[in-house]
Design goal:
Elements: H1 2-17, H2 21-30, H3 35-52, H4 58-78, H5 84-107, H6 119-130, H7 133-142, H8 159-176, H9 180-201, H10 204-234
Length: 235
């Protein structure tokens, strides 16, 4: 697996550290005529060769160069504002998949996925999944009877939902690693940013509604963390 991580390091350096906004704009504007595009993919190959430090790796580096060129070219020609986020993650996902494949091809390491079916890992995955959308729906249903009849929708789309998911995952992580004090810091941070805005709006019902939702969300995350730790001792 060390080969894959060396290739991943080379990719991160070439794609994020050494690639400037000017380079990206040049590729998007000139496309196939962009010299920056060819220099960019060549850099990926050179860094891969440098980190692997094996002259026999040149064939694999060539695969990385060609695949990176084709993936980037597809992204450039498909580039639209609405597709920008989707194309970014698809682009990076394909690059990483190629690197993993090259690493496997070069080193012939064994891919073992049996650990995914380990009882402890199944419990962990179940807890993490539960703390995302399932918990959001449960909490929403639980506090639905207190939902204010009129709400000013001046926040980012689904921002509250994502904030809730992230805070539950963070709390779960803090509990698993025994960092209970970090939960207090998270509560304080959220109170400063969230409730100061609500205070300015002078909407008591909305403030109480948000407070109930936050406390329930924290309670669900803490309970899930405690149950997870208890189950680990049993299995």
């Amino acid at each position: 697996m060390i080969i894959f991580f060396k290739l991943l390091l080379a990719h991160l350096l070439a794609d994020f550290i050494f690639q400037t906004d000017k380079t990206v704009k040049n590729k998007e504007k000139k496309k196939l005529r962009s010299v920056a595009l060819y220099l960019h993919v060549l850099l990926h190959g050179l860094l891969s060769m440098l980190f692997i430090w094996d002259m026999h790796f040149w064939r694999y580096a060539l695969v990385i160069i060609i695949s990176h060129f084709l993936i980037d070219l597809c992204k450039i020609y498909l580039q639209k504002v609405k597709l920008q986020r989707l194309l970014f993650f698809a682009d990076q996902g394909l690059h990483i998949a190629v690197l993993f494949g090259v690493g496997y091809w070069y080193q012939k390491y064994k891919i073992d996925v049996h650990w995914l079916l380990d009882v402890k890992n199944i419990i962990l995955f179940t807890a993490l999944v539960f703390l995302t959308k399932p918990s959001s729906i449960i909490i929403k249903m639980f506090i639905s009877k207190w939902t204010p009849s009129k709400q000013k929708n001046n926040s980012l789309q689904n921002a509250g939902n994502w904030i809730g998911i992230l805070e539950r995952l963070l709390i779960f992580g803090f509990i698993v690693f025994g960092k209970w004090e970090a939960i207090g810091f998270l509560i304080a941070a959220k109170s400063v940013f969230r409730f100061s805005d609500l205070k300015d709006n002078k909407d008591r019902k909305l403030t109480e509604y948000i407070l109930i939702g936050t406390l329930v969300s924290f309670a669900v995350a803490i309970a899930t963390g405690l149950v997870y730790l208890k189950l680990l001792k049993i299995v």
